[in-house]
Amino acid sequence: MKIHDMMQMAFMTAVIGMLGLIPPIFLAFTPVPITLQTAGLLLAGGLLKPKQALISLLLFLLIVAAGAPLLSGGRGGIGVFFGPSGGFLLAYPVAAFMISLWLNRLKKVTALRLFLIYAVCSIGILYIGGIPFQAMMMHIKITQAALFSVIYLPGDLIKAGICAVFTVKIIQAMSYRKRDLHRGRRAV
């Protein structure tokens, strides 16, 4: 792995941590907050290679587990992984890896294609990992946890749309990927 790759991973890890400084929105009926850190996950998956995206999110979770208060609301420590949002957090690396893997298979990157991949990953993978864990931690049925999660869908779709547009603009601005975008391919 090159120094450039390690710098990109460290940068994305830092971006996700900085998004944790933005206060979360807590809802009365569920202990899982609305945060912008999922946007960082989407950007990491969209801008990094699959292995880099996976390592970047694993590094972020390792730093959080070590006690750094990088999650929204200043949360950190191993205990956050045993709370209602633990399953969502543990699904972060898988979602980032899958986003990057799917994007690398595209012949042409467009905001619409990115949006669809981001939506599938942020809603599909995170919810599949998070909802059963949330149900288990809250001692409720999975169907109840799924109903609690419906309120997050509009926000997740908005984050996916905004991140899709940002990712296309960032890829266009990155000189080492401009060539690939013009050829109709995303750099690997």
Layout of helices and strands:
Elements lengths: L2 H17 L5 E3 L2 E5 L2 H11 L2 H16 L20 H19 L6 H28 L3 H8 L3 H21 L1 H8 L6
Antiparallel strand pairs: 1-2
Subcellular location: Cell membrane
Pfam families: BioY
Protein name: Biotin transporter
Short structural summary:
The chain contains 8 helices and 2 strands.
Structure description:
- GO terms for molecular function: biotin transmembrane transporter activity.
- This is Biotin transporter.
- With 188 residues, the chain is mainly α.
- It contains eight helices and two strands; from the N terminus they run αββααααααα.
- The chain has a two-stranded antiparallel sheet.
- Helix 3 packs antiparallel against helix 4.
- It is globular, with a radius of gyration of 16 Å.
Question: What are the defining features of this structure?
Answer:
188 residues; Arp2/3 complex 21 kDa subunit ARPC3; 2 strands
Report the principal-axis shape: globular
Q: Structurally, how many domains make up the residues?
A: 1
Please report the first level of CATH classification, the CATH class.
Mainly Alpha
Percent helix: 55-70%
The number of helices is 8
Question: Strand count, sense and closure of the main sheet?
Answer: 2 strands, antiparallel
- Oligomeric grouping of the chains: single chain
Q: Rg, please?
A: 16 Å
What is the average of the pLDDT values? 89
Give me the side-by-side strand order of the main sheet. 1-2
Quickly give the CATH architecture.
Orthogonal Bundle
Low-confidence region ranges: none
End-to-end separation in angstroms reads: 14 Å
Give the DSSP E fraction (strand runs of 2 or more residues): under 5%
Q: How many E-type strands?
A: 2
Secondary-structure class: mainly alpha
What is the CATH topology classification name? Arp2/3 complex 21 kDa subunit ARPC3
The helix-strand sequence is HEEHHHHHHH
